[in-house]
Design a protein that fits this description.
The protein is an alpha+beta fold and 145 residues long. The chain is built from three helices and seven strands.
């Protein structure tokens, strides 16, 4: 049986419409995580972050961040040893907000260690903010765990 050109056009049109509907369905089911819910408010405060990063540059060395055997280790510069350091480490995963980890800490020996129950895999941005001798500091590093 031979189809006329009218039926061929109708079939092509129906396949096109079905393809567009499939793409619309897939696009509506796509999940997007925002970096932060209140990004405008944080953008206004970004000058504070710039100042905190400048303070880190004036230290003898940047904090060393390492992850091995499900343990996150942060070694602060030598001048921080022996005095109170308190702050927060935020492990930000851009691809999946449900895997973000935020942990507060306080240490007197210039080092912080945190054992995790789960294995971290993938690319994380480690956002380290801390207070030492009344000054705020901030450091950001990308790590592939």
């Amino acid at each position: 049986m031979k189809l006329s050109w009218g039926y061929k056009i109708a079939i092509a049109y129906l396949l096109f419409v079905a393809g567009i509907l499939y793409l619309v369905f897939r696009a509506n089911n796509e999940h997007f995580d925002l970096v932060t819910e209140n990004y405008y408010e944080q953008e206004l405060k970004y000058q504070d972050i710039i100042d905190q990063k400048k303070r880190v540059a004036h230290l003898s060395a940047e904090p060393v961040i390492a992850y091995k055997n499900n343990q996150l280790s942060i070694q602060f510069p030598a001048e921080c040893a022996g005095s109170a350091v308190k702050g927060e480490v935020y492990l930000y995963r851009a691809s999946d907000a449900s895997q973000d980890i935020r942990q507060s800490f306080e240490t007197n020996n210039g080092a912080y260690n945190k054992q995790f129950n789960l294995s971290l895999t993938g690319l994380y941005t480690v956002k380290l903010s801390w207070e030492w001798k009344g000054e705020q500091y901030f450091q950001e590093q990308n790590h592939s765990f």
